[in-house]
Amino acid sequence: MFCDSCGSFKPSQGLQQGCPLSPYLFVLCIGRVAHSIKLVVQSGRWNGFRMGRRGPQLSHLFFADDLILFSEASLLHVGVIQDTLGSFCAASGKTISNVKSTIFFSLNVLPETRDCIATNLNFSVVTDMGKYFGVPIVHSRVSKNTYVPLVEKVIGTEDFDDDVVKRFAAILPPSPYAKEDKLVWGLSKDGRFSIKSALSFLKGNISHSVNPFWQVIWSWASPERIRTFLWLSYHGRILTNVQQVHRRMSSDPSCALCGEAREDNFHTLRDCPNAKQVWLGPVPQCLWSVFFSGDIRTRIEANLSGTFGRENCDWHLVFGVAIWYIWKWQNECIFAGLDIPSTPIALIMKRVSNFVQAASLSRSTVLGPCSDEIQISWSPPLVNWVKLNTDGSVIADSSSAVGLQLAWQFGFRQLVAEVDNMATVNAILGTSSDLSHHGHLADSIRDLLAKDWRVQLRHNYREANVCADHLAHMAHFLP
């Protein structure tokens, strides 16, 4: 495609068969034909076929490479059609195939007019336009007989796969109690959208690219504020002077304590003289060269996963607490004018000891699950009442709520229905509609319960529903 318009040109060589540009060019050309016809119709020179007294006017139909034109049967319209198609042929270099072109007249056109129009257009006259995909193009009122040839052609074919036919035949018809289809959220049990399910879905899709060390940080046993600070440090997001310059909050990236040119994460938490003085105590001298090298992520991973400090301490706890207090003390020194403690290691070790004791106390005071022993047995219904105990089994070709339907058909109007699934009871007794895959079952059961009878739906333990479970198990082996 060129940016500037060029002069007229005449195509000389067509595209080869199978060229990928062919369908695109064909669509462009057909679109131009439709545009030309539309302009002529809007000018009032072309009267198309009006579909009904107040219906729209139809001037042309395009089916792939098949074109059908509609117009008034007059010599004036013959000239308009010839001019429109002639302009397109002159621009595209194509010609109309008179052999493949036919003309169809309605019954109220005079024979003399038919012959005159056919002679001018040089098209052959037909009384039947044939079929399109097995359906007659021109027909009277649509009835069953209209599609008889198409049905016979489909039935007569021998290309159907027997397995496919059997699978279609095995599909159960829709239940008469089924409601209209609804849009549901397929990633939750109740069919309702939740932020948790959406995040779980996104996490599952990107789990291959997530650094597993994030789990180490968030499962680290310490106060939440220190875990959050570790995450920010690992992500390079603590608000150092370099970060402030990057966010256009400041113009000076140097350290306010030592005057170093750049106060980044490394400098603040490890290389600043105030921070370095803290690390020289707990880190053995033989590991100084390793500890004070590498990028921030590598150092945090190594210190939270490995051992750099003394053998008699939990180094991952000491490291996390230490970088938190280094950051805290430096901010207090800059913004509050306070001095860094003279014995920082002793204070850090004391805080680590407090965290360990608190975590140990929390684990030891967790109460175990309490349970009460109760006697479970089946109880008979009250006088003039009938009890229905149900199990999860159903007849293969049955609809939902078979037990309730039988009770209604037998004329029982005071019924106690017991189910050993609490989730089922809650779903049926709930006020909101269940949007899950089985929500329509709960809706159909609610419709049955709303009839003119008294039904008490209760939950019962599985041990009290042994008889129903045993009978349902036996029914699986019945012929």
Automatic annotation (TrEMBL):
Query: Which Gene3D superfamilies would you find in this protein's record?
Result: Ribonuclease H-like superfamily/Ribonuclease H
Pfam families associated with the record: RVT_1, RVT_3, zf-RVT
* Taxonomic superkingdom: Eukaryota
What is the species of this protein?
Answer: Hevea brasiliensis (Para rubber tree)
Name of the protein in its database record: Reverse transcriptase domain-containing protein
Q: Which GO terms describe its molecular function?
A: nucleic acid binding; RNA-DNA hybrid ribonuclease activity
> What CDD domains does the entry give?
RNase_H_like
List each copy of the Reverse transcriptase domain by range.
1-137
Q: What is the lineage of its organism?
A: Eukaryota, Viridiplantae, Streptophyta, Embryophyta, Tracheophyta
